[in-house]
Amino acid sequence: MKISFVIPVLNESQSIEQLYKEIIAEIKEHEYELVFVDDGSNDTSFEILQKLAENDPSLKIIKLRRNFGKAAALQSGFAQASGEIVFTMDSDLQDNPQEIGTFIKKIEDGYDLVSGWKKKRHDPFGKRLASRFFNFFTALFFKIKLHDFNCGFKAYRLQVVKELDIYGEMHRYIPVLAAAKGFRVTEIEVEHRPRPYGKSKYGKERFFRGFFDLLTVKLITNYVRSPLYLFGGLGLFLTLVGVLIGLYLSYLKFFGGMPLYNRPLLFVSILLIMVGLQFFSIGLIGELIVNQSRKQGKEDNISIEKTSNI
């Protein structure tokens, strides 16, 4: 069985060589490849990786021109991975390679993605609290029973990583994206070791970006095939509220004799109806785009089948 590792690196010169040795000690009986993705490091991380690669032809290095973020680094590594099982790990030594065998057993049990659960975390209280909120609301929002969506220690079948398309902060929602495609997802408890060198590369701004990506993931996993369900529902609700307000004002006008030109509710009613109709129109346009894309996809498949038959 060939095993691939995709490991993003950002200024981890003190950790790389030790991590490499720990991984090799656990997988020396397997065919393997290590894909390190240098995400714009400005220390000696790339030079250390080059030295390691000189003695190990199974080590591949991808160097990004600048810091594009973890999702982009993972996506670049996934494109190069070829093993039957693909692991992702952080390069800060907080993930323990001794647990690689446990992940492999879970994959062999029939799961497509196995995510780590850092039940006992060695992080500052603020970071732990934020992580708990994130995991709770993500599990509630997407109805997936995982405790730790953002753990970097994961194992995938190759097909999973080849079908993923992540960007922004979407690496946090990889289990959600995989589950939406019908893959079997589970988790196992993993050891979270204290960080021996350096400090975390993630700041507070990631929580704001993560919130917007949560909305994006919800849209592409639940409504990308039927956008009218989302935009049409919003439009129908707003239009209905606007019409009800209009009926209420009409009652006041015709049965109570009250003038409407000085009633702010009149403008609210008009605004809600207009915005509701716009949302409904967006949903219809989205349905046309999705329908056209499906037709194009079918035509492409037909042409491929004809070509392969020739």
Description:
The structure is a single chain. The protein has helices at 16-27, 45-55, 70-80, 100-108, 125-142, 158-163, 174-180, 205-222, 227-256, 264-309, and strands spanning 2-9, 31-38, 59-63, 85-88, 113-117, 154-157, 185-189. The protein has ten helices and seven strands. With 310 residues, it is α/β, with parallel strands linked by helices. The protein starts with a strand and ends with a helix. A seven-stranded mixed β-sheet has the order 3-2-1-4-6-5-7, with helices on both faces.
Mean pLDDT: 85
Shape: elongated
Number of strands: 7
Distance between the termini: 35 Å
* Unreliable stretches covering 5 or more consecutive residues: 299-310
Strand content: 5-15%
Total helices: the number is: 10
Fold topology:
Elements: E1 2-9, H1 16-27, E2 31-38, H2 45-55, E3 59-63, H3 70-80, E4 85-88, H4 100-108, E5 113-117, H5 125-142, E6 154-157, H6 158-163, H7 174-180, E7 185-189, H8 205-222, H9 227-256, H10 264-309
Parallel strand pairs: 1-2, 1-4, 2-3, 5-7
Antiparallel strand pairs: 4-6, 5-6
Helix pairs in contact: 9-10
Please sum up the structure shown:
The protein has 310 residues and is of the alpha/beta class. It has 10 helices and 7 strands.
Supply the key terms:
310 residues, alpha/beta, 7-stranded mixed beta sheet, 10 helices
